[in-house]
Amino acid sequence: MKIQLMNVQRQHESYAEEYESAVLQVLRSGTYIGGEEVASFEEEFAAYEGARYGVSCGNGTDAIILALRALGIGRGDEVITVSWTFFATAESIAAVGATPVFVDVCPETYCMDPSLVEARITERTKAILPVHFYGQSCEMDVFRAICKEHNLYLIADCAQSAGTKYQGERRKTLGDVSCFSFFPTKNLGCAGDGGMVLTDDEDIARACRSLKLHGSGKDGLWSLEREYERKGVLIPDNMPLGESKYYNYIIGYNSRLDAIQAAILRKKLTHLDEFVELRRTNAKLYNEALKDTEYETPTEGVNSYHSYYIYALKHRKAKAIMEKLKALGVPNGTYYPVPLHLQGAFIELGYRDGDLPVTEDLSKTTFAIPVFPELSKEERNFIIGALKEALNA
Ligand SMILES: Cc1ncc(COP(=O)(O)O)c(C=O)c1O
């Protein structure tokens, strides 16, 4: 039996006709950038997650960069985040010139530990950026309260959490700005790269729209005017003013979601609840089958409706078990093997082994197994059998 850790091909096959006809329609339309598919997907995804505005972009990394820039976060600022996440979370903070400040995660939920945040707030802190890790919702109420008290922005990294709920509602997983990825393996994945920023704030949405299109046109001019107003200075008389895309007012990016990707995502969005339910069923069946073993199965936070982008088990002999599982034909992997505070790219921040003990422990003791929605009963049972066998590694 050849099982894959993540299998996007099977997801395609289950609704192939629907996705392929949507792609064909775009190909025949000749509208490949922007247009109806992109605008509709922005509206539909924002409505699904419970936000007023959706601004699509090239990928989830760009979504975080756009969010930070739209909030005016940059050089000299600090953003509190986690180290137990994918590199892009902190990379985006560094990419806008700000400094990521890493805090540890809760040993039960694997999400940012709210009790550690206030001690890391300084006068440079501008935002808290928690990650709904593996699809588990963070304790958003606590973060919201901290942000309110200290006048900070709450940015949610939702790259792994499309479909996740907090206190029974998807909208409650969102921050002032929320950043999604549609990388193919994600809960809602396209056939390439894609991302989206969600917000209820019209100004933030507009700032993101201008940044993603080279700071050009009407939205670019609006952003520039806002910047000059903030600085209390007048726009120079000699500035060429026009509303077409060839008038550029701020340094932005080229970060667009292609119409073909939007068309696929619109179709997949109609099945997202079903995909999340299937992931949850797989997780539940693993939990039941492994409850009397030495494996520590994932905990669902009390307020969290976990979407199980990743299902990870914990065992102090994880490395040996992972090898044994591979030999038995069960693919697995650590998400992620090197915590960000110890990554070479962040070495100059001066963190040391031992600074974030929970994160460091999880990077050595956890491993993911297949949980994708189309996993068959036979495959799941085979994996459970192999997991039990591997305990003798
Ligand atoms: C937690 C997290 N943040 C950000 C990203 C970045 O998304 P993308 O790969 O679409 O740029 C990812 C994607 O893997 C992620 O898992």
What can you see in these coordinates?
By secondary structure, the chain is of the alpha/beta class. 39% of the residues lie in helices and 12% in strands. The chain has helices at residues 8-14, 16-29, 36-49, 60-70, 88-95, 140-150, 202-212, 217-231, 259-269, 272-290, 318-328, 357-365, 377-390; strands at 53-57, 78-82, 99-103, 125-129, 153-157, 165-166, 177-181, 195-199, 304-305, 311-314, 366-369. It has a seven-stranded mixed β-sheet, with helices on both faces. A two-stranded antiparallel sheet has the order 6-9. It has a two-stranded antiparallel sheet with strand order 10-11. β2 (78-82), α5 and β3 (99-103) form a beta-alpha-beta unit. α3 runs parallel beside α9 (259-269), α4 packs parallel to α5 and α7 crosses α8 (217-231). The longest helix is centred in the last third of the chain and has 19 residues, at 272-290. It is globular and about 75 Å long. The mean pLDDT is 97.
